Structures are given as structure tokens and as C-alpha cells.
């Protein structure tokens, strides 16, 4: 038996980073209030979802499915980026969450393949104020499996927290210090175009050769993004990896409060359907106490 330990270092402020730039968990419990979650029913045509889910998700697999010999890497680069199109942008946290997090679905028409655990680069429009040069690319972990939320292989998703800065002197948010790319993404509308690079990275790929491998997945906030792709591939979609999987996938997610929980409905569904293969723990830092009775 093998254990794959995955750790996302991105804190809940944002899931993006510029290349080259410098608690205790408690058992999950039923929440008193229903947390906000992704509902794609009004984003992707129902007929498309029904058609895709009735088929096996096996048309984007390597041969054999666990081989990593042909992982796509940096197919599109800064000087020749890919142009994707926004399908939907939806807030997925409640009113008491500390900040705004959005689930963004992007159409790539099957021309921008990626694997679970990889990142997409996003180049925000405009130029830098200090020197007039184009903005640098920001990397975001992809929050869907290679088949996308609609399971057609033509879309991919990002989980993005809007980066803002509260100025103590102004006693208000300072727009001059807001995150350029996260605000651009969270403000997008269906049909908007987006310049993208990648896919980037091979470090976070799932080691699928041994179907009894246990996965320990630890994240805070939007660091959950790649693990959503993992869980969908193993349990939600009808993939060769999912059919073969016999191990345990254990997900730890830390957020500030119940309203900030991400994709809870999806985790609860998997937990109910695969109780022997999926475990889930939350740490709600502003709602739970440590052993000494203090804040977590």
C-alpha cells in the first residue's frame, strides 16, 4: 500500500501566484446552516450534462490510463497564449464568509487539455502602472478533472478568491492595492475572453498505477482546487481510475467559518456514496475551539 500526501500551501487569501515571485482538524459534522456551493444547473445545458454523464469518461486517457509519459505541459506560452471563453462565474460562499470566492467555468472547446493537479496561467488584460508592460501571468490550480464540470472534455474550472486590501487609514478597501488578476476573474461574465497559458506542473499529478494508493489531501481555502479534480476523477466520474480505485482518499479542509466552506455538497455526496473510500475533516478556525478552549 502506498500513501500519497498532498499539501497545498496557498492560504485562503488567493490560489494564484506569480511564477518566480517570492491547526488541528476535527471530524466533520452536520452544519446548522446549509453552506453555499456550486450549482451548475443554470450554467451548462442540462442536455449536455445528461449526455455526458450517461457515457464513460474514458476518452481523454493515456494508455494505460495511469501512464504519465504524455502529460501536456506548457502547450501555450506567454507570447502565444490560448484564448478561452467564460461560461459562468459564480460566488460560492455565503454572506458571512471572510471574502468572496468564485467558481469560474471556462470553455476551451477541447483545444487546451490538462490533467488533474495541473495549473492554468491567466494573463489579466491591461498593463502595469509602473512601467506600462503587460501584466505577468498568474497561475491557478485547476478545480476540475480533465473532463470538466460538464464531463465533455471541453471546459475547465478555477476556484478564485477575490484579493482585496483593507486600508486602516482609509477605513475602506484600497482599490489601488487590489489583486489585478483575481478581481478580473471574479468580475468576468459569460462570453468574456481570457488569455491563458499552460498547463503547468507535474508535481501534483495523481500516482494512479497502484489502485490501492491512499491520498491524504490538506488545503486551506482555495487550495482545495486540485483536490476537487482528484475527487471527481476517483468518485464522481465514470473513469478507469475510479473503477480501479480501492484505496482511501482523505480530505482535510480549513476555512474560517461555515459560510466559507467550498464544495461541501459535493464532498457530502461522495462521503455518503463511498463511506469506505472517502474521509472528510473540516477545521473552522472561527467557530471551533482547540483543546484548551481557545481559537484554533
State the major sheet.
Answer: 7 strands, antiparallel
Q: Which segments are poorly predicted (pLDDT under 50) over 5 or more consecutive residues?
A: 8-15, 17-38
Summarize the amount of helix as a percent range.
Answer: 10-25%
Strand content: 25-35%
Q: What is the distance, rounded to the nearest whole angstrom, between the alpha carbons of the first and last residues?
A: 33 Å
Tell me which oligomeric state these chains represent: single chain
Summarize the helix and strand pattern as letters. EEEHEEEEEEEHEEHHEHE
Mean pLDDT: 84
Number of helices: 5
Shape: globular
Secondary-structure content class: alpha+beta
Word description of this protein:
The chain has 296 residues and is α+β, with helices and mostly antiparallel strands. It has five helices and 14 strands. The strands form three sheets. A seven-stranded antiparallel β-sheet has the order 2-7-6-11-4-5-8, covered by helices on one side. It is globular, with a radius of gyration of 19 Å. Mean pLDDT is 84; it is low at 8-15 and 17-38.
List keywords for this structure.
296 residues; alpha+beta; 7-stranded antiparallel sheet; 5-stranded mixed sheet; 5 helices; globular
Q: In a few lines, what is going on in this structure?
A:
The chain has a 7-stranded antiparallel β-sheet with strand order 2-7-6-11-4-5-8, covered by helices on one side. Strands 1-12-13-14-3 form a 5-stranded mixed β-sheet, covered by helices on one side. A two-stranded antiparallel sheet has the order 9-10. The protein has helices at 46-53, 180-186, 225-236, 240-244, 264-273, and strands at residues 3-7, 16-17, 26-27, 82-91, 101-107, 119-123, 138-141, 155-161, 166-167, 172-173, 193-200, 214-220, 249-255, 278-284.
